[in-house]
Specification:
With about 240 residues, the protein is an alpha+beta fold. Helices cover about 30% and strands about 30% of the residues. It has 6 helices and 9 strands; from the N terminus they run ββββαααβαββαββα. Strand 6 and strand 7 (about 170-175) form a beta hairpin. The protein starts with 13 loop residues before the first strand and ends with a helix. Its EC number is 2.7.7.56.
Length: about 240
């Protein structure tokens, strides 16, 4: 049996709490079971120098784990003087994923910065960050519409992310830490609600897995992301 007696194709309990930060233009506290991430979207009227005068905006992201987000305290990366390769890689993944579903020309010459701070980690922190980041981004763009700065929300598609993996020979949706740490293979899917692929990261941990198993992981991800997008839509109404 899986932890919490979940079915192989069942998500953890997922919630998207909007308005979790009183100051950010868009914010969401996303919970995937025991993984909790605070996602905020900040609108910056300045843009990177290499984009000036091009009539388009930018979306970027920063990811971090708070010191007691895991069982033992980790020192802040700022105190160590540099970010880890993992932090940089996940930050870039979040930014790429969100830029795939926003019309940067419609956004105009402004930047939206998505900050994803992991408050508690139990597997799937990057996928939770992307899913919560979409909510924060949508809400920030709605603020621009409400203020009359934009005529329509430039976010043109629903998207989310979820992890899948092979544990004890079975393909499973939305791995928590005890499963992820024992997985023979794991994958992170970033998809639209219609099943469009934005990014897939997949690797075997010990022995190769088959194309049929990859197809099953993809099927699980498509169904799971459809559920996640419905929850996101309900949250931003």
């Amino acid at each position: 049996m899986r932890p919490n007696n979940r079915a192989l194709d069942q998500l953890r309990d997922v919630t998207f709490e909007t308005g979790a930060n009183a100051y950010a233009e868009g914010s969401c506290l996303v919970k995937f079971g025991g993984t909790h991430v605070l996602c905020t979207a900040s609108i910056d009227e300045g843009i990177p120098r290499w984009l000036k005068g091009k009539g388009r905006g930018w979306v970027t992201a920063e990811y971090g784990m708070l010191p007691r987000s895991t069982h033992t305290r980790n020192s802040r990366e700022a105190a160590r003087g540099k970010q880890s390769g993992r932090t940089i890689e996940i930050s870039r993944l979040i930014g790429r994923s969100l830029r795939a579903v926003i019309d940067l020309e419609k956004l105009g010459e402004r930047q939206i910065i998505i900050d994803c701070d992991v408050m508690q980690a139990d597997g799937g922190t990057r996928t939770a960050s992307i899913s919560g980041g979409w909510v924060a981004l949508w809400l920030a763009c709605e603020k621009l519409v409400e203020a009359g700065d934009l005529t329509e929300n430039p976010v043109f598609a629903k998207m989310a992310a979820v992890s899948c993996g092979i544990v004890d020979g079975t393909c499973r949706l939305d791995l928590e830490y005890t499963e992820d740490s024992a997985a023979q293979a794991d994958a992170n899917f970033v998809l639209t609600d219609a099943g469009g692929i934005i990014e897939v990261q997949a690797s075997a941990e010990d022995t190769p897995f088959s194309a049929d198993e990859m197809a099953e992981l993809t099927r699980l991800a498509v169904e799971g992301i459809r559920e996640l997008c419905a929850l996101q839509q309900a949250a931003v109404k």
